[in-house]
Sequence to fold (222 residues):
Amino acid sequence: KNEVEQSPQNLTAQEGEFITINCSYSVGISALHWLQQHPGGGIVSLFMLSSGKKKHGRLIATINIQEKHSSLHITASHPRDSAVYICAVIGNSGYALNFGKGTSLLVTP
Amino acid sequence: NAGVTQTPKFQVLKTGQSMTLQCAQDMNHEYMSWYRQDPGMGLRLIHYSVGAGITDQGEVPNGYNVSRSTTEDFPLRLLSAAPSQTSVYFCASSRQGASQPQHFGDGTRLSIL
Fold:
């Protein structure tokens, strides 16, 4: 099984701060997902990436396949960004995802 | 479009009871999957399906049964509920496999007494 480690586990930031969440995995992969879980429980897919960088609004995701590491950045953070951010990697079969435990982010006004 | 619909949203069962968690998607997705989410742990895959008539086990399949008779529906059956199956269950779908953006249902919160 591909072990997925996220850091930090919990993060508190003030509105406007630049935020970085990290994800490392143990076995080489073809692609990685970043997901957002709202306080109400719903899960939304933010990014899927296999190389380089992707940007959507204030969110930026990067991946370094050789170093087995990905980062999710949030620029100009806002209280509505408060959520759990989850990293998931694709298992060997190509049909299963292995998930990190999530990073709980709280952005205060 | 409704996306991925899970029912019920909440359920309380007694130990030994059986029940079916429903999952339906209207996006004509081939790949569907079931996960459970427990405190302090990441989402864990229970079963998945790559198309109608095809299912396979995930990481934690014991105590659960699935079938995929249509592209739209992927029900998860608890055969004889146990307190260890108290969890939040999520269904997800994608066009094909894990290498595609995943669409999640809102979850079913299940308590086994």
About this structure: Chain A has a mean pLDDT of 92.
